[in-house]
Design brief:
The chain has 10 helices and no strands. It is mainly alpha-helical. The two termini are 27 Å apart.
């Protein structure tokens, strides 16, 4: 008899992940705010050297600025290390929350002779865990700070803000191309890799029979064909991802230079105040604004792999919901004798 009408199995994979990650995401967002500010410290150092040291010819000022920038670099690396440690802790907790359930359900699937039962769910869990410590999640967290950079560009000058939006739209288009042209071969590569692995696993279980019947060469040729198909699809996806990553990086670099030139043109035309610092700051922010999008496009393979792994793992967990908590009954008393008992796993006719 169940204690509750709501089984624990009703909790979806998304709810499990959010329950584990949300408390730490607030900490990561706090650290990321300082990291995004400290990332601009080299540009601040450059401006201060040009403005104060070059004009004043003061070596003491240069030493003080250099000492300060080294301190800021140390703080930046420390915060990056803390943020990565938080991500690693989240990944470990997700693994701990799901691995036992997945491991047990894999044996259930094998007992029930479900087609395609393999070690894929554990591999999918590992893919999700690795994605948490990848640059993809960091890029997503940095998106709000990219929006703040865009707002500041509008404050400097409206035209500069719109110019930055054009660069962002170009990157969104590159991302759409990524999804359209990289997702199919990546999905096919994942499917082919799974087929090749399953074929190998099924063959290795019958290695004595295969060897005795002289089928080893034929088995190897079949596996090699499946593996070659996986490598072919992976190569296509990698080539397309590399091209789009280069385009996105080029767009970010060009935007920084073009915003600098555009701001200079606005100053010459008299539409913008003649402060060179604003011009340089606009150039830096224009590049930083696109950084999260560039990171996402460069690691789009991780996004696709995680999405595929999440879908498969979610379906697997739905097929084997977590059992309801049962009411504890008193220990049975008396003697029970059983003879000639034959039992079958659930949904299976094999004894």
């Amino acid at each position: 008899m169940s204690k509750s009408s709501n089984p624990l199995g009703a909790e979806t994979l998304r709810q499990i992940i959010l329950k584990i990650t949300l408390p730490d995401l607030y900490k990561v967002a706090f650290f990321s705010a300082f990291i995004n500010l400290l990332v601009l410290s080299p540009s601040w150092y450059m401006l201060e050297v040009y403005d104060r040291v070059v004009n004043s010819q003061n070596i003491y000022t240069l030493w003080m600025l250099t000492t300060l920038i080294l301190f800021l670099y140390a703080i930046l690396e420390l915060l990056e290390w803390v943020r990565m440690s938080v991500f690693q802790g989240v990944g470990r907790r997700i693994d701990k929350a799901l691995r036992e359930r997945i491991f047990s359900n894999m044996f259930k699937a094998k007992l029930m002779q479900i087609p395609g039962a393999s070690s894929q769910p554990l591999m999918d869990l590992k893919t999700i865990q690795n994605a948490i410590t990848s640059p993809v999640l960091t890029a997503l967290i940095d998106v709000p700070f990219a929006i703040f950079a865009l707002i500041y560009l509008f404050i400097i000058h409206t035209y500069l803000g719109w110019f930055a939006i054009v660069g962002a739209l170009i990157l969104f288009f590159v991302g759409w191309v990524n999804e359209r042209f990289i997702h199919p071969p990546l999905t096919a590569a994942s499917r082919d890799a799974m087929h090749a692995q399953n074929y190998f696993n099924s063959s290795i279980r019958n290695v004595e029979v295969i060897k005795s019947m002289g089928m080893l060469d034929r088995i190897h040729q079949t596996w090699a064909k499946k593996h070659h198909q996986f490598l072919k699809q992976q190569s296509i996806a990698s080539a397309r991802a590399g091209a789009n990553g280069a385009i996105s990086k080029l767009t970010q670099t060009m935007q920084s230079s073009f915003i600098l030139g555009f701001a200079c043109w606005l100053i010459i035309k008299g539409d913008m105040s003649g402060q060179g610092a604003d011009m340089i700051v606009a150039s830096i922010l224009g590049g930083r604004m696109l950084a999260p999008l560039v990171q996402l496009i460069a690691h789009w393979r991780v996004v696709v792999n995680v999405r595929e792994s999440y879908t498969r793992l979610n379906q697997f967990l739905k097929a084997f919901p977590k059992p309801q908590d049962k009411m504890e009954l008193p220990k049975p008393k008396g003697l029970l004798t059983v003879e000639g008992l034959i039992a079958c796993p659930p949904q299976s006719s094999t004894p």
